[in-house]
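Team,

Forwarding the record for the chain on the shared tracking sheet. I've put the sequence and predicted structure together so nobody has to dig through attachments.
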Amino acid sequence: MEDLKELQYQMAQRREGLDFEHCRIALRKLGQMHAASMALVNENLSLMDKFNFGMFHGSVDLQHSCYTSPANDLQYFLSISPQNHVREQHREELVRIYYESFAATLYELNYSKIPTFAQLQDEMRKKEMLGFFAAVFVLPIALMEEQSTQGSGLDGLMDEEARKEMTWLMISGKSYTEAIKPILKRCDNLGVFDLQSYQGDSNY
């Protein structure tokens, strides 16, 4: 694989999150990748044997690709990657940016039945619980401000006291508490926590 450092690329600071422009670029590329995957499978259905069946190809982590709803990637990305104010103020705009790139790429590839934006929105509603899980289990790791005095990595996870300390550091840090509050409020407003009425999809 190419070393992007030679092209002057730099890793973003994980605790800062991505600004709007970098989110826009990432989601445009994600839309193109999802569209290309759909077109490829449409031309060669035998490729489905290599993936789990679903609506679209989707996986932010390319080491664990599968064929599933694009909303999985979108929910995961929007929960853990943007800066707080970008997530809170530009979420719908970013979903629209993704869709426009996705639909335009499908059109260029002569895909016959391009999903509508309303269909994507419906998929997003079904996958809200996945976004919540990412915010609860992945975001605190990304925003962790200190290292455990009991150890870190696999060695630390093997020790019960270290696990407790690391968990407390992850969920009690200022960065995480500031990020999770509006996420929880949004999920509550959408009825995600009302398991009897929530019309989500448990297949992730």
